TrEMBL record:
This is Tetratricopeptide repeat protein. Keywords: Membrane, Repeat, TPR repeat, Transmembrane, Transmembrane helix. The chain crosses the membrane at residues 12-31, 43-64, 96-116. The lineage of its organism: Bacteria, Pseudomonadati, Pseudomonadota, Gammaproteobacteria, Alteromonadales. It comes from Glaciecola petra. Pfam families: TolB_N (PF04052), TPR_16 (PF13432). It comes from the Bacteria. Residues 138-233 form the TolB N-terminal domain. TPR repeats lie at residues 367-400, 469-502. InterPro entries: TolB_N, TPR-like_helical_dom_sf, TPR_rpt, Ycf3/AcsC/BcsC/TPR_MFPF.
Amino acid sequence: MKRFFSELQRRKVIKALVVYVGVIWLLLQVVSVLSGMLGLSKLVGTATFIALMCALPIVMYFSWHFDLSLNGITRTPPLPEQSATGDDENAPIKPLGAWSWIGLFAVVLISGAIGVQTYNTFEASVLEAEQAANQAIEKSDSIAVLPFKDDSSAQDQSYLATGLAEEITNQLGRTDLFKVSASRSSQVLVEKGLIPSEIGQRLGVQTLLTGSISSTNDRVSIRVELQDTASARVLWTETFVREFSNIFDLESEISRAVVNLLQDKFVEAGDLSKLSSTSDVDAYVLYLKGREAYRKQTAEAMQEARAYFEEAIAVDPEYAKAYVALADALASLSEGVDGFGVLAVDIAADLAEQNLEKALAREPDIPEIFAVKGVVLMLRDEYESALEAYDKAIALNPNLAIAYMWKSLALTTLQQYEEAIAAQRQSQKLDPLFLTSSYNLGVLLIWQAQYGEAEALFDQLRIDFPESAFSYIGAADLYYSQANFVESIRQWKKAVKLSPSNLEFERKMFDAMIMLGLTDIIKASTDDPGFDSTILIFEKKYSELFEKMDFEIAANPDDYWVAFEAGWYHSMFGDTNIAAELITNKEELISDLDKFYMPYCSPAIELAWAYQVKGNMDKSKMLIDECESLLNAQKENSITYSETNYLEARIFALRGESTKAASALETAIDKGWREWWTSYDPLLNAVNNEPKINTLIRFIEDDLAKQKEEAKRLFEDVN
């Protein structure tokens, strides 16, 4: 054995093997790069590897007999004792004999046979796996793209990894072939540490696209993997290496490959347009950094996102999607209900619209243009037009979850509740980990009295977002709707504890406390003037109340709602004629949408009462009939919470139908009606002689008194 290794060294076989192994490594690297660039089958790399490995015995055999050097190929001299003179240098070198050539032929034949057999076995296994994958893929109609892993050495390209996954999601979403889960939910679940199969199950998708990305200098390397959620089996994997400037082509190439795999349809190159493309890599990087800031959803981060988008546009003034993103950020910075309160509403709307027009002129088919346009129109109270914009966005991208959510908000404002719930369900289905979407759906379910489903949603929010107050405010609204004010206050206390700086949460808690008459605790807890009038009522300081309201009217002569509030207080605790005059005066200042706002149909129903007091029965009847029409429409939409039943009781009372009024009031109470002012409601005066009405009102008062004592203990426990 020692002599054999010595001979291997003398004949330079080991040196030849080392060189050959280096050549194998180099060739495999070249094949890997070319396969990614040209989209070649992975069998090419496998065949190359098998061929090179099968050639290894041939190289060894050849190097035993020949010396391979830069000077050429020469026969290896025999051992000294094998030569006639004993001198290997001067001994004649005989050519290979017949047996040596037969040996070489045998080595080639055996190596080739082994190589062919190995390749055939591997090819058969690949084809079998592909057939199994195709069978699974044929049934797949849903997918989620998980944020790609940042494989850069410095770990500083998360914006690129997440942004690329988001862009691929958008491209896939533009097809109407399958459900594409929103990027936001995928990112939340990845951050929670769930494995891909768990993420797929939670998102309700059958397939997942995962990947990793790294970029160096001007090149980017992306490895993608398509998985079956149920089996966790890899259905397809590929590595792409491209120039960074070609990343938009790569996005489309990956999206096209996924569509071709998942659907019984072949999508050709160019069928998935690159709506996010820009000619400048720097602009794209700035855009992705802006998107990363935007996803944080804070006022500071949104202003940072705005700056990034503006920089991207400065680098490439033709970058359409950067204009859309900037418009979105500007709308989000408005002082609207859902904005961050940085820009005045009209300024935010104007700036956003200007950028949308620039995007539209450059690339008219970007779905987000119309989604953001809908937001701008809502900022201007143009809700019907906003719905048209959202429908256009959804037509271009049926998987655009945010468009469904915004559409639901517009439909809710227009009191089209059935359609609003349907749109919100679709938004939550596509983006189940979007906190706001789940919360909004829960609120709408409360309105439909689907309390069990709403409670389950809020419970899941508490699990998914333990640091968020939204699950508690949702639960607080749920308990409030069921007239469980004690539990509602308890949930509000938890929300306030999580967000002590949010004064709106505290105000909502005080609203629940007002229902129970806990004015002493409110006075000790806040100096908010918004509660002054109600506190004066509970303290029966009516003269001070009316003086206060006279001052408010004088200070706000063109504000109908101030006059209405004063009239409402007079209707319960003051002069009926003054009340009727205040409520009807300047009615023309409010729109019909505001006048007939459901579920109370207020102030229209109070106007109907006021016109009865003034003797204008025709005007009163017209208002009552319109409220009844809206009430019936809500019943058809399954909107049957306590407020609608109380509205029905008031309508019957204004018509003098005491028996029907009592029945409707009883139904309202069964569904949670417990308003403290029910016994003072002037609209029920016409039926107060109905014994059942008085019995029901006493029930409300007794229940509120009982809950008041229980609620006091919530604050005593704290002290």
